[in-house]
Inverse folding.
C-alpha cells in the first residue's frame, strides 16, 4: 500500500470539509500569532469576513482556486512555535501543576512555612 502525503489526503476531502478545516486551522494559526485574545478577536473577525465574501462563489474551478490559495497561505504563515494546550504532552507548562485524584482531596499544610517566618531572615 502506498502512503498518501498530507496534501493528497486533504485534497481528497469534500469541498465543504476542506473549507471548514481551513477556517478552523486559520483561527488556530491566528491565535498562535496573537499575544492575547484582544489581538485575536479582530483578526478572527477579519478571517470570517474573507470566508463570507467567497461563500456564494458557484464556479467549481474558482472554488478550487480559492481553496488552494487559502491552503497555501496557511502553510506559508504557519507559526514556528505554536501554542499547545498545557494538558497535552509537549504543551506549554505540561505537568508543572499536575491534576490530583479527586477522591484524595487537597491537603493544605499551612504550618509548612512557619519555621521560615521566625526570625528576621525574610
Amino acid at each position: 500500500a502506498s502512503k498518501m502525503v498530507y496534501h493528497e489526503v486533504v485534497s481528497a476531502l469534500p469541498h465543504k470539509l476542506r473549507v471548514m478545516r481551513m477556517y478552523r486551522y486559520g483561527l488556530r494559526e491566528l491565535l498562535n500569532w496573537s499575544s492575547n485574545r484582544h489581538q485575536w478577536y479582530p483578526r478572527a473577525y477579519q478571517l470570517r469576513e474573507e470566508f463570507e465574501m467567497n461563500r456564494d462563489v458557484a464556479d467549481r474551478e474558482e472554488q478550487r482556486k480559492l481553496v488552494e490559495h487559502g491552503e497555501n497561505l496557511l502553510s506559508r504563515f504557519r507559526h514556528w512555535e505554536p501554542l499547545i494546550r498545557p494538558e497535552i504532552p509537549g504543551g506549554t507548562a505540561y505537568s508543572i501543576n499536575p491534576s490530583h485524584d479527586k477522591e484524595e482531596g487537597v491537603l493544605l499544610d499551612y504550618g509548612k512555612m512557619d519555621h521560615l517566618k521566625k526570625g528576621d531572615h525574610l
